[in-house]
Amino acid sequence: xxxxxxxxxxxxxxxxxxxxxxxxxxxxxxGPDSDCATVTTVWEGDAEAxxxxxxATCHSQSLAGDDRQDAPVSVNFDSYSDIVGVGPAYVRxxxxxxxxxxxxxxxxxxxxxxxxxxxxxxAPER
Length: 126
Known about the structure:
Blueprint: H1 9-21, H2 43-54, H3 80-86, H4 88-96, H5 109-120
C-alpha cells in the first residue's frame, strides 16, 4: 500500500497534547468554594437550563450558518453528552472567559459559579 501523505492522527494528537497541557481546575475539596459534598447542581433541570439559556442560542446542532454567530459547528451544548464530549475543562474555561460574548445575555456571578462547581465536581447528570 502506498502512503497517501495524509496524517489523520496528527491533528488529534495535537489536540489532546494541548488539552493535557491545560491547568486542571481546582478539584473538589481543593479550594474553599469547591466542596463537592455541598454541590447539588445536576444536568437535568439545573445545568441544562443554564446551557439552553446562555450557550445553545449559538452552540446548537439545530442552527446553521449565520444563526450560529461564528460558533464552531463541532461545539454544541444541546445535551449532556455534548458537554461531556467537548470536555468539562474546556467548557469551564469558556464560561470563565469569553463566553457568552459581550452583548449577549450574561449569567449572574452566582449562576456562573454554580456551573463551574458542577463542572469541577464531575458534572453529574442526575
